Amino acid sequence: MTENKITRRSFVERSLAAGATLALPTHRVLGANSDVRVAIIGCGGKGTSHLRDFATKPGVRIVGISDPDKAHMNSAENQLKNTLAKQGANVDARYRQHQDFRHILDRPDVDVVVIATPNHWHALLTVMACQAGKDVYVEKPVSHCIWEGRKSIEAARKYNRIVQAGTQQRSDPALIHAAEDIRKGTLGAVQWIHSLWYRHREPIGKVTAPTPIPAGIDYDLWCGPGPKGPLMRKRLHYDWHWQRLYGNGDLGNQGPHQTDIARWGLGIDEHPSSIISYGGRLGYQAERKDNDYVDAGDTANTEVSIYDYGDKCIVFETRGLDVTKSDDEELNRLFGNDSGNKIGVVFYGSEGYLAQTSYTHCTAFDKDFNVIKKFSGGGNHFRNFIDACISRDADQLNADAWEGHLSAAVSHLGNISYYLGEDNRVSIEQLGEALDKVKSLDDNGATLERTVQHLKRNGVDLAKYSLSLGPQLQFDPKKETFANSADANALLTREYRDGFVCPDADAV
Fold it and tell me: Is residue 362 assigned to a domain?
């Protein structure tokens, strides 16, 4: 990685053909005499949803939006107008569209930026926004790699900015009370967690040649810190999740939610000490009845990651094929159904279980699966963030940058093991033998058996399309480095394009 003391000024000078006026960071007393002024960076589905939510918050005004895709901005603007019209309000007179986000950062009348871009932009935008004197709400994962997450924390602390991670369950009363109950000992001793993503994920299509870039898109800016190569997928938007240069797969897309809840309930405030993953991108040949079908995605759609925290353990399990029917009797009872999606977390205690089955619902059971308590709610993560911005008290945040970093890192660590072992194709017998040697509070063999049955139910010929086994990696939670793999350490960061380099510590 190139060492680069990048500043917002140098960034603009190097990358903008026509320079915008550079404003010094502003530090208004928010909420004292005027509304908190918010700008949205990234106007896809998530960003537009956030736009509507922030627009309806008392004391908040939307004053700008930014996206490399002009069509995204126009659609978001229409939704903003419709949302405000229902309240009998109009768009703020200061509202502007900016295809280049750097104009947002230069505006002294912007207090807060909301980052809902593709993953590869999250950390760099967070750092630059902090440098520009803005508070930040950043979607999960807060980084594309572990090194970037640390830079976001350093920037938030150095510039005294309020940075909230988009793990909204942290502000939900159901989860808050469930986590409190677990720590009080309602379930007895809880030492391990099973985090689930069971949901069919369609392939992103097969391409044999580059896809033309749609009109109205600044593709150079879209790529940003990632490589600017030909578009080798059918859609520019959203499907980047399943290409590792820009996204982090389902483990990195959903994992930061589920593992965040798992850490929270267990009271874990550090990285795991060892990680191992296995899986693959499997089953689309059977779905398409085409043995030669290989879609453009390069992240796993089936993946199991095992995280050892010493006396505690988290297992994250991804199933991306059809989940119409499940043979997992215990999970069926905890989730209340034997079919359909299962997205959540199961806490296993000495005296019972607790299943988080949605963002707003949890149920506690005794050892005989009798319901002993239910939790429900619906929090306001955005309100928590705005209130912290006004008070200037980062301790008021329910999901500070540090929490976002820890929960994103869990996914990054699992993916690193998987990527390093991607070419290590093994039989089920070999995989079972390897897992028998892995320390875990989970029954590794039982989890493997569930995974195999799911794949077989979806027509996967495991003799032909075998699973990949990653190495067991030893991680130093304090130094944030691997003790036993130089190759793994190389994946803690990424290569950056000139002009879009996330700064090193001395430049943050």
Answer: yes
